[in-house]
Amino acid sequence: MVDDGAATGTLGKAIATLSLVCEAEAPLRFTDILERSGQPRGTLHRQLTHLVAEGLLDIGRDQLYAPGLRLLSLAASAWSRNEMRRLAEPHLQALNALTGETVHLGVLRGAEIVYLDKVEGRQAIRMYSQIGRASPVYCTGIGKVALSVLAAQARAVLLERLDLRRFTQNTHTDLAALVREIEEIAQNGYGFDREEHEDGIHCVAAPIVSPDASLAGGVSVTAPSFRVAMAQMADWAPAVRDAGRAVSRDIAVRMSPRPAWG
Fold first, then answer.
1. Domain 4-68 carries which CATH code?
2. Bridge partner list, 204
C-alpha cells in the first residue's frame, strides 16, 4: 500500500526542485541544485532524472538544467482555460480602450501577486511585465487591493509573514503605514502604486473577490509617471473600481448554484 503522506512529500519535493530551476536567473548545475535544495544527493538525482524524462526540465551537453519545453504547453493550457481570466477579459479590454494604457489582471498567491493577463497600452513606450510573473503583494497596486478584501484574520497572518524589502524610496517598510493604507483602500474600493515597486511606474488598481473569498486579486491600469500624472490616475479610479466590481459579479454568477429543473 502506498503511503499517501510519503507520496505527497515526494511530489512536494519534486515540485520544489522544479520551481528552484525555473526561478533561477540562469541554468543550474547539479551541484548548484544540490546546495540550494538541501536534499540528499541520491534523492535529488532521481527527481531530476524523472523531471527530464517528463519534459519538465531540459539538460544540455554542458550538464546545465533549465526549464523544459513541456512547461510551455502546460502553461498555455492553464492560461487559456483559466475561468477568472476569461470572465475578466472584456472588462480589461474596456479599460484599455478608455485609458490607452496597459491593463493587468492578477491573483493573490501566498505573499505574491501572479499576473494572469495583460492588455498592452497603445503607446510607443510600454510596460515590461509578463503573464505568469509574480510580484510582492505589499508594494504593488493589485497586491494592496487584494489585501483589502481579505478577512481580517487571514490578512493579519499574511502581513506578519512579510519581509518589507525596499525596492524604491516609496516602498512601504513600515507595517503600520501599510495597514492604514489597506484600510483606506477597503473604504474607497481602489488604491494606487505610487512608484513603490519600480521607479517611474505607477498604477491605479481595484480588487476582485469571489463570494467565498477563496479568490482575491485585482485589475489595474499601469503607466509611466512621466506620461501619466497621478491626477489622471485618480480620474480613472472610478472606472477601474467599476471594472473590478463587474468581474467580481461575473465570478459570483459563475459560482452560484444552478437551479434544478423538473
1. 1.10.10.10
2. 192, 221
